[in-house]
Amino acid sequence: MTSRLVLCIGDLFIPDRAADIPAKFKKLLTPGKIGQILCLGNLTDRATYDWLRSLAPDLHIVKGDFDCDPSSSTLALSKVVTHGSLRIGFTHGHTIIPPGDGDSLLIAARQMDVDVLLVGGSHRFEAYEMEGKFFIYPGSATGAMGMGWWGEGEEPVPSFVLMDVQGDVVVFYVYQLRKDASGAESVGVEKVSYRKGGSSQ
Q1: SS3 (DSSP) at 25
Q2: Residue among 41, 184, 36 nearest 119 (CA)
Q3: Contact yes or no for 148/139 (Cβ under 8 A)
Q4: 140 φ, ψ to 5°?
Q5: Which one of 60, 63, 103, 154 is most buried, counting C-beta atoms within 10 A?
Q6: d(CA 136, CA 15)
Q7: Are 180 and 33 in contact (CB under 8 A)?
């Protein structure tokens, strides 16, 4: 069974709230390794769009609440991609009301008829299973400040997710940029997996 790496990234806010994607992330994300990109909105500059296209031409974007450029007016609020038997939906999340609400997320996942729902807007990583469906927030790849619905004042940890789809199993590799007490940065990786039909670890 062949696998295909899918980059899940969003809430970049370049150059409004962040100068660029962290250099340590860019070093990890190189052309030829990624098969597809799912961008969860708030991709607010052309240079970053071009960079993502250089990583993988199979780029899918949904509209975020701050995507105001005229070229973003035609973007859908949500999309679904299929990998074998898995249906994966993604949305920025500003249309999930109230934000992060479990019942509202389940309704959205059922309406989209997806096994996995990727959601933006929170600016922090989170992943959990609910009623056989898997929900994942990749966070903000830049650690953009100040607009996550989960609360002001808490500094977001920059993060993105790589999905490795293998049949009816998807493994999520969560990359987070941490700083130690001296300010030195390092990239940590967590692994979470989900099997269609409802089992995660």
Answers
A1: helix
A2: 41
A3: no
A4: -105, 125
A5: 63
A6: 25
A7: no
